[in-house]
From TrEMBL:
A GO term from the CC aspect: cytosol
Positions bound to Zn(2+) 1: 82, 175, 205
Residue positions binding Zn(2+) 2: 103, 133
NCBIfam families: cbbA
Cofactor(s) required, per the database record: Zn(2+)
Zinc as UniProt keyword: yes
Annotated positions binding dihydroxyacetone phosphate: 176, 206-208, 227-230
Single GO MF descriptor: tagatose-bisphosphate aldolase activity
GO terms under biological process: carbohydrate metabolic process
Textual note on the cofactor: Binds 2 Zn(2+) ions per subunit. One is catalytic and the other provides a structural contribution.
Protein name per the record: Fructose-bisphosphate aldolase class II
Species per Swiss-Prot/TrEMBL record: Lacticaseibacillus paracasei NRIC 0644
Keywords noted in UniProt: Metal-binding, Zinc
Active-site positions on this chain: 81
Length: 287
């Protein structure tokens, strides 16, 4: 069934676990993600990113997401990830995404607030929750690291003025593949500061290859949602290297299986099963 992420992330925040956010880029990856959720009997966030629209446009993503999400045996959040265009985000709100992210983090602080507030008001009128980003989670593909740690006072002001439902913060992760082989150093002190004073669930982007110990600690200290994409895409890619297949269907089956296994690993790392250990969580319908 398709659900909102509102109560799910609030429970994660209070109980010290994280909900996995897995990006899909075709039907095979969407099936693998849902299969992992059903196997582990936990909700997940099934996400399509605007940057993938040249390969899978928003209508194709909506069709796939609504089909697999609504037929799943566990609750699924259908999320629009990194929506850079307000028009695209509003279209997603109107046509079936149960959660959206408006990403104006590269704009000035004031412009980010204006754009985010507009989307929040639009989404809330239609029962859709909104995620936004402050600070900036850079990419390891940049010539220089463009990440900027999220400032505590700025985060407080941003949430107050926008009424956003969840906030992406920057504490040292990066989008894409890390240039070095070492596990990144995360600023857990900054995370703890933000968790104490920001009243909405905090989100971590760039979860791929950030280290299981790091990610579990982040979830325990206040990260309620972790985004994973690059590791999953690479897992599917590795399946096809150095091996021959009898058919494309056999290849796709192994790719789907590899995605499911990695998803299941991350579900364990994030301790998502804590959802059903919460005394406040009495039924799936409460989500």
């Amino acid at each position: 069934m398709l659900i909102s992420s509102k109560n799910l992330l609030l429970t994660a925040r209070s109980e010290g676990f994280a909900v996995p956010h897995f990006n899909f880029w075709n039907d095979m990856s969407a099936r693998g993600h849902v299969a992992s959720a059903e196997s582990k009997k936990v909700p997940i966030i099934l996400a399509w990113a605007q940057k993938h629209e040249s390969d899978l446009n928003i209508n194709e993503a909506l069709n796939l997401g609504k089909f697999y999400g609504s037929s799943a045996k566990v609750p699924i959040v259908l999320h629009l990830d990194h929506g850079f265009s307000p028009d695209i985000v509003k279209y997603g709100i109107d046509n079936g995404f149960t959660s959206v992210m408006i990403d104006a983090s590269e704009e000035s602080f004031e412009k980010n607030i204006v754009i985010t507030k507009d989307i929040v008001e639009y989404g809330h009128q239609r029962g859709v929750v909104v995620e936004a980003e402050i600070g900036h989670v850079g990419t390891s593909l940049d010539e220089e690291d463009t990440s900027q740690y999220t400032e505590v006072e700025a985060a407080i002001e941003f949430v107050k003025r926008t009424n956003v439902d969840s906030l992406v913060i920057s504490i040292g992760t990066s989008h894409g593949v890390y240039k070095s082989k070492t596990t990144p150093h995360l600023n857990f002190e900054r995370l703890s500061e933000l968790r104490k004073v920001v009243p909405v669930p905090l989100v971590l982007h760039g979860g791929s290859s950030s280290g299981d110990v790091n990610l579990r600690k982040a979830a325990n200290l206040g990260i309620s949602k972790v985004n994973v994409y690059t590791d999953l895409a690479n897992a599917a890619l590795q399946v096809s290297m150095g091996k021959s297949y009898r058919s494309i269907l056999e290849l796709l089956e192994e790719e789907e299986s590899s995605i499911q296994k990695l998803d299941e690993h991350y579900i364990e790392v994030f301790e998502t099963q804590k959802l059903y250990e919460s005394e406040e969580q009495t039924s799936v319908g409460a989500l």
